[in-house]
Amino acid sequence: MLQTDALEHTESGEDDASALSRELFFQRCRWCGSPAFRRSFCRACGSTAFTRERSEGSGVVVRRHGHVPHNTWFVAMDEGFYVLCQVTGTAPVAVAVGARVTVVRSVTPPGRGMPLVELAYRAESSGRWW
């Protein structure tokens, strides 16, 4: 596995599902500093040397991926990398390009898969691209 796999753990004293880690880890190239998510080489310089950093966990929806029932979207994270995420807690039609999201769980199911995010706030009608 690549070094961007998230560390899922429960906080001490909590044993319910809400205690899952919201930490999302990404890679930063040691040579040019470009951020990436689950890459084996840097897209900018081709280096295979990465450091692991923790994301703040917020980003902006960029575009839809696949069919509506899956509710998967490409999200531009604030650190500068893109990640395919699944949006939870809302109907797929309520998600729009430009909406802010935050990480709920770093990967779904734990240990593999894509990050799970929820809407922080919806895009305004003037902010939508259609």
Polypeptide structure, described:
The protein is an all-beta fold. The chain is built from no helices and eight strands. The chain has strands at 25-29, 35-36, 50-54, 58-65, 72-77, 82-88, 100-108, 114-121. The strands form two sheets. The protein has a five-stranded mixed β-barrel. Strand 7 and strand 8 form a beta hairpin. Residues 1-20 have low confidence and may be disordered.
The SSE order reads: EEEEEEEE
**Estimated share of beta-strand residues:** 35-45%
Please, how many helices? 0
Distance between the termini: 39 Å
* DSSP E strands, number: 8
Radius of gyration: 15 Å
Sheet having the most strands: 5 strands, mixed, barrel
Sheet with most strands: strand arrangement: 4-5-6-8-7
Would you tell me the overall average pLDDT? 78
| Amount of helix | under 10%
Low-confidence stretches: 1-20
Structural class: mainly beta
Characterize the overall form. Answer: elongated
Give a short overview.
This protein has no helices and 8 strands.
Based on the model shown, name its key terms.
130 residues, mainly beta, five-stranded mixed barrel, three-stranded antiparallel sheet, 8 strands, 38% strand, disordered N terminus
